[in-house]
Amino acid sequence: MRQSIRPGAPLMNSRQWAEENNMSKLIPILAVMFSASAFANTAEGEYIARIADCVACHTQKNGDEMAGGKRFQTPLGDIFSTNITPDRQQGIGAYSYEEFDRAVRQGIARDGHYLYPAMPYPSYEKMKEEDIRSLYDYFMHGVKPSAQKNQASEIPWYFSPRWPLRIWNGLFTETAAGTAVAQDPQQNRIMRGKYIVEGPGHCGACHTPRGIAQQEKAYDSADPVYLSGAMIDGWFAPSLRDLTLADDELQALLHRGRSRHSAVAGPMSEVITQSTQYLTEADRRSVSAYLLSLNSDKAHGDRVVSSERAKTKNASGNALYFRYCSTCHAIDGKGTDYNVPSLVNNAAVNAEDPANLIKVIAWGAETPVTKGNIPYKMPAYQGEISDEQLRDVVNYVRGAWGNHVEPISEQKIKDVLENKH
Ligand code: HEC
Ligand code: HEC
Ligand code: HEC
């Protein structure tokens, strides 16, 4: 996916950037183009668009920003996100505020058709009206219009009538949660975090399991299934209810894509690059406070399945680890602070479903791109080692240094790597 509104060269400070881009000459021109008040309004909306990550889904690789065209697989067939730039013909330039609000919070387009829930309106439904207003100002005045055409969905005609979606909505979406204000500052922080995660942040879209109709099984932390972990495009988005990350580690991860002991790979990288790195410090603290408030006792003890078999000797895996991994992840599995993640008590290593662990070793990984941080790379081993060896090294790290998860079979490796995401 194109990431053109992410910051430029990571190590340049803003003054260097301004010089490089000849800002001194540009400023007077910009001042004429935007009145100061238009600037102020769209900045708020731009922030909301960031935390709601509209760009991630509404921008196609090499396409114009927010001009849609990204493909989504649904059980019925593929659909495409649409052009939401202010272009009047191809985009949403003709949307009134009320129509925009109805699309974002209720999933109903301007012409009255129901949107597929690939658009996360069941979460956006919880967003405050003032935030929707700021978003609208930003989309109408802060986003560059694009005449990129929308693509028709590939859903077979007999499924195409969108009326079943109305029934879907009646069954599965909830009404907006009330917003109460507490006296205790920590409580307020948790409530703000809850708002971001459950509303604009739509974290449940990946971290909450889905039911038979593809609906997320819950949209609110009152239900223990909410954020309890789910497969998404062949990756496992782990439970956020029993994180073993400390508060500062979690905040650093959301901000910089890596922290002292951890890093992420796969679809979460993009979430950090496009969205969470922009959270203000206060909002980052709130998200962390909320997520850690969900922690069950599980997090502090037996999150991993103990197994006798995992503890049996694995000479091949041990040798492979020393040959291929220990230079970076260290002999004790603890990596290097801030650079190479620790594999001890690591969510990807200890997940019941080893998909992420297998993919990262086979295809390599890179820490998410964030402002001011050079990404660190891990090499890809597919082709270098056989599936059998891959199994051995996977089982080694899943059984070493106090990790003790069920070993996996070679067939599991083959199954996971078939899914090319
Ligand atoms: C997880 C992916 C995803 C995210 C995030 C997302 N959208 Fe969408 N959106 C879609 C898809 C897919 C469609 C097309 C659905 C359809 O055709 O039924 C869509 C459709 C829309 C439409 C209807 C446009 C039309 O063609 O009339 C609007 C408006 C819209 N999105 C606005 C937004 C805004 C604003 C945000 C951020 C607050 C956002 N979307 C975030 C996936 C997403
Ligand atoms: C597009 C899907 C997707 C969305 C949306 C998403 N996540 Fe994730 N998340 C993942 C995946 C996949 C992983 C596993 C990454 C790995 O194994 O390296 C992950 C991992 C994480 C982790 C690391 C857990 C650990 O113990 O190491 C945290 C924390 C997290 N996500 C928080 C969030 C928050 C907060 C949001 C909402 C702002 C969010 N995620 C939205 C897919 C997603
Ligand atoms: C050249 C240094 C290097 C080597 C060699 C290396 N890694 Fe990595 N590894 C990294 C870096 C850097 C990351 C962080 C990338 C990211 O964001 O996931 C990483 C990430 C990982 C992760 C994902 C952690 C997470 O939380 O998402 C796992 C698992 C892993 N490595 C295991 C291994 C294994 C097993 C080997 C040997 C087969 C290996 N690595 C070899 C540098 C290395």
How would you describe the overall organization of this protein?
This protein has helices at 14-20, 23-33, 36-52, 54-58, 97-106, 121-124, 129-141, 163-172, 185-198, 204-207, 247-256, 267-274, 281-293, 308-311, 315-329, 347-350, 355-363, 387-399, 410-418, and strands at residues 71-74, 77-80, 230-232, 235-237, 365-366, 377-378. With 421 residues, the protein is mainly alpha-helical. Helix 9 crosses helix 13 (281-293) and helix 11 (247-256) packs across helix 13. It is globular and about 65 Å long. Bound molecules: heme C (3 copies). The site of one heme C (HEC) has 24 residues, from helix 3, helix 4 and helix 5. It comes from Duffyella gerundensis. Its cofactor is heme c. Its main location: membrane.
Please describe the structure with a list of short key phrases separated by commas or semicolons:
iron ion binding, disordered N terminus, Cytochrome Bc1 Complex, Chain D, domain 2, 3 domains, binds heme C, heme binding, mainly alpha, two-stranded antiparallel ribbon, transport, metal-binding, Membr-bd_ADH_cyt_c, two-stranded antiparallel sheet, 421 residues
Principal-axes geometry comes out as globular
Count of DSSP strands: 6
The level of helicity is 40-55%
What is the strand content?
Answer: under 5%
Write a brief structural summary.
Keywords: Cell membrane, Electron transport, Heme, Iron, Membrane, Metal-binding, Repeat, Signal, Transport. The chain has 421 residues and is mostly helical.
Lay out the secondary structure:
Elements: H1 14-20, H2 23-33, H3 36-52, H4 54-58, E1 71-74, E2 77-80, H5 97-106, H6 121-124, H7 129-141, H8 163-172, H9 185-198, H10 204-207, E3 230-232, E4 235-237, H11 247-256, H12 267-274, H13 281-293, H14 308-311, H15 315-329, H16 347-350, H17 355-363, E5 365-366, E6 377-378, H18 387-399, H19 410-418
Antiparallel strand pairs: 1-2, 3-4, 5-6
Helix pairs in contact: 3-7, 5-7, 9-13, 11-13, 15-18
Keywords: Cell membrane, Electron transport, Heme, Iron, Membrane, Metal-binding, Repeat, Signal, Transport
GO molecular function: electron transfer activity; heme binding; iron ion binding; oxidoreductase activity, acting on CH-OH group of donors
Binding site for heme c 1: 54, 57-58
